[in-house]
Structures are given as C-alpha cells and as structure tokens.
Design a protein that fits this description.
With 208 residues, the chain is an all-alpha fold. It has 9 helices and no strands. Helix 8 packs antiparallel against helix 9.
Length: 208
C-alpha cells in the first residue's frame, strides 16, 4: 500500500552526498525526539541539529510526520537486519537455544534504542496503515512461522500454528517493550530466561 503524499519523502537520494544529508536529518531527528519528544521535535529544531537550513530539509521531506515515518522505517530496517542475522546464525541450533538467543538479541536491541522506542510507543501518533513496524512484525512472524513448522514434532499435539504465532507475537513483543521502558529491577539474563521458559512451556505443554 502506497503512502499519502504528506508521509512520503519529496526526494529519494541517489547520490552519496544526498544520502549523507538524509542520514544526517534522520540522525538529528532521532536526537531531537529523545531530547524534546514528538511534540517538541519541530522541523526547525531538526534542521538546526542536522546543521542544515530549513530549505535544505524541505528539499527532502515535506513535513515533520514524513521525517518521523522515515525514522521509524530506518529503525524497523535495523531491527529486521539484526534479528534476521540472529535467526540465520542459530538456524541449526536446537530450537530452545535458538529461541532464547533471539529473545536476548531483541531485548538488547530495544535497550540500545530505548529513547526512540519510548517515543514510538508512547508519543508518535499512528500514521495510518503505512507503519513499517507493522511490516516488521509481519516479517518476523513469517520467520517464526518457518521455525515452528520445522520443529512442529517437538511441540504439543494440539498446538495451532496461527494461534501460536499471534500469541507469541503479542506476548513477547509487549513484555519486551514494557521491560525496556518500565525498567523493573529484573536483571537482563533473568528476564530472558523467564521469557524463554514461558515460551518453551507454552510450545511444549506442561506435563500433568
């Protein structure tokens, strides 16, 4: 689905200099978001933080929301790349080991970008069905689906793949985000172990 013009960059950078300019704008926008929040992240402040004029910024983005969408896009692409690499690296490991490693990396990535994650979750208004985070979730769901199908014989007999995918996506995603944003007094390794045990127990079923 295509995005409306108000959420689409004015120019797609083709040359290295233009790409560096856009990256600078997105880096600046990320910093301003962390410092000022969504409401305080004006295009004037973003341009100043990027060291460019307002006119230069508007050559690439028509408004603040278009910049925010691009920031979220870049964040989602980064997560997809890192998590995809992790899945590939542990593809031949036993599924409980591979699953725990994936949970560990996901939470660490959220922690690395906690300020931006908070803004995305709590402040940036949803910009219609064009949010790449939703696309990220779908791509990760597809990857998990493959792993579930490959290891189906190891799970409980009554496990339904579609139901399981929804449950795991919602539970793991929500718990991981709240852990990073709420910062409970739970050590990282303990958190990963507990979440992994929860997922493994759900997939295997508890012995009576």
């Amino acid at each position: 689905m295509s995005r409306p013009p108000g959420l689409t960059p004015r120019r797609i950078p083709r040359q290295d200099r233009s790409r560096r300019t856009v990256e600078g704008i997105l880096d600046a926008a990320t910093r301003v978001l962390a410092e000022r929040g969504y409401d305080g992240a004006s295009t004037n402040r973003i341009a100043a933080a990027a060291g460019i004029s307002n006119g230069s910024l508007y050559q690439y983005f028509p408004n603040k929301d278009a910049i925010m969408v691009a920031v979220v896009d870049r964040f989602a692409d980064h997560l997809t790349e890192r998590l995809g690499a992790q899945i590939e690296a542990t593809m031949h490991e036993p599924w409980p080991v591979a699953g725990r490693a994936l949970l560990d990396v996901q939470i660490r990535l959220f922690q690395e970008h906690a300020d931006l994650l908070r803004i995305i979750v709590e402040q940036i208004p949803r910009l219609g069905p064009f949010d790449k985070l939703a696309g990220l979730q779908r791509r990760l769901t597809d990857l998990v689906r493959v792993q579930l199908l490959l290891n189906r014989s190891a799970f409980r007999d009554d496990l339904d793949i579609d139901t399981t995918l929804w449950m795991l996506t919602e539970i793991v995603g929500s718990v991981s985000v709240r852990y990073v944003l709420d910062r409970p007094s739970i050590p990282h390794e303990r958190m990963v172990d507990e979440l992994a045990d929860l997922v493994i127990g759900y997939l295997r079923g508890r012995e009576s």
